[in-house]
Amino acid sequence: MFESGLVAAGPARNQSFHSSYYKRVGEMYPRVRDSFQVKTRVVLCFFGVAGCIVFILSGVRIAGGKPQSPRADTTQPENRKKLIDLIPRHVPIKIKVKNLDNEKWISDLAVEVTNTSDKPIYFLELWITLPEIILENGGPVGFSLRYGRIEFVHLDTMALPEDVPIPPGETYTFKIAEKYQRAWEAHKARENRPNPTKVHLVFVQLSFGDGTGFNGTDAKPFPYRRAQSFRGLPKQSQV
Fold first, then answer.
1. What is the pTM of this model?
2. What residue segments make up the domains of the chain, in order of their start?
């Protein structure tokens, strides 16, 4: 653990995602240009009339000039990140992540969570983890996103009148806590680290405040059902 305050993400899954989502756009331009030149020669040979001179001149200008750039992408390549959503699909929430590719992503990041169930959510915990940045204990750097009273980590905790839930159909926006923002910026500057290219969104716990909910990275429903024990033979009714 760094003295800066960064913590390892306890609930993160140890899965590898090695598929690359980057391709250098610049490498595509020569192929497009060569293809264009070949097709232009075929057309010129087919027509073979005075009008082809115009095509030749324009073709020379196009081939000799710089290729047309695609629509400007204001996102710098070093800021792009691949979000890997590890939240099980049966969890009744809808997620929308914003500003992940911003230069100041750690402060701008917004995770919008909509309650898609028919019950109020009194407690919800997710983790943002950076799988490429591993701490001394072997876990990735992580930032906790938590809504609700901490006592709800005990699965049998019931909602109190003063607890304010996320009602069905309503949305709550998570932000990374400022203490984690400062810790990451200090560590990034000290270690001269680039921005991460992969970000994991991990589920930890959800409570409806009535003793039911989902727990763990696999979102197992609780209360847990105990294995049925042997109760012996049923009692016989007396005649």
1. 0.66
2. 25-64, 75-222
